[in-house]
Amino acid sequence: MFLVDWFYGVLASLGLWQKEAKILFLGLDNAGKTTLLHMLKDERLVQHQPTQHPTSEELSIGKIKFKAFDLGGHQIARRVWKDYYAKRRLMILMSFIRLLQVDAVVYLVDAYDKERFAESKRELDALLSDESLGTVPFLILGNKIDIPYAASEEELRYYLGLSNFTTGKGKVNLADSNVRPMEVFMCSVVRKMGYGEGFQWMSQYIK
Ligand SMILES: Nc1nc2c(ncn2[C@@H]2O[C@H](COP(=O)(O)OP(=O)(O)OP(=O)(O)O)[C@@H](O)[C@H]2O)c(=O)[nH]1
Ligand SMILES: [Mg+2]
User: Fold this and answer.
1) Binding positions for GTP (predicted)?
2) pTM value?
């Protein structure tokens, strides 16, 4: 009974109660994927080491499977391999993602780390242009807004090149339109704020 209550609590707060889905968390290293995964799991904060290889983590709650991958590679690896590494990594990752048949993507961006917006945009663009994800809803979470001077939602939209491509908050019926649902929500995973609204928005596009 306790477990059922807990299931209900977490999933209802995300709008995912009684839904069945595979949801992928993506984003550069340090964006907050592991922290979010654990926040959903334990509703408490744990300090994480940067996720090591293989960079994939999973959490199942009811019929919802959350899976996190790190896209950017880690600082040391990046320094050594530079672009070559990033491209290869992305290629391998994309083939995994195709096999997974995901129902939604949550793309996390560190809204405070403006120096990496361009890098994050590159990864996001690669995902958005992949055919296998063509109709998959994308929730973009601008994380860490608890830090002063984190980017605003407008800035983030601008730097990620999304200003004209988001499909609208609230209830927007896109069923007959062939348009991929995509929205930006700002959040602070450590303060447990913002991402619930994002998931609620996303849930309307998950059967
Ligand atoms: N201030 C602040 N820090 C956060 C927030 N979310 C995550 N962090 C911190 O950001 C750092 C990276 O978080 P992780 O969850 O490890 O990030 P990740 O995306 O899993 O990173 P990798 O595993 O390295 O790819 C950690 O020190 C977190 O505590 C947030 O909302 N606000
Ligand atoms: Mg991690």
Assistant:
1) 27-35, 73, 143-146, 189-190
2) 0.89
Per the CB < 8 A criterion, the answer to whether 205 and 23 are in contact is no
Does ipTM exceed 0.85?
A: yes
- 1 CA to middle of ligand 2, Å? 31
Contact by Cβ (8 Å): 117, 150 = no
Transcribe 156-179 into DSSP letters: HHHHTT-TTT---SS----TTT-P
Give the ligand whose atoms come closest to the C-alpha of residue 33. 1
pLDDT tens sequence across 94-151: 888 888 889 999 999 999 999 999 999 998 998 999 988 999 999 999 999 999 999 9
Pick the CATH number of 2-203 from 3.40.390.30, 3.40.50.300, 3.90.780.10, 3.40.50.720: 3.40.50.300
C-alpha gyration radius of the chain = 16
Q: So where are the chain's domains?
A: 2-203
From 26, 30, 75, mutation site for ligand 1 pocket: most ligand atoms within 8 A of C-beta: 30
Name the closest ligand to CA 149: 1
Instruction: Give the three-state DSSP class for 189.
Output: coil
- Residue 133 phi/psi, 5-degree rounding, is -105, 10
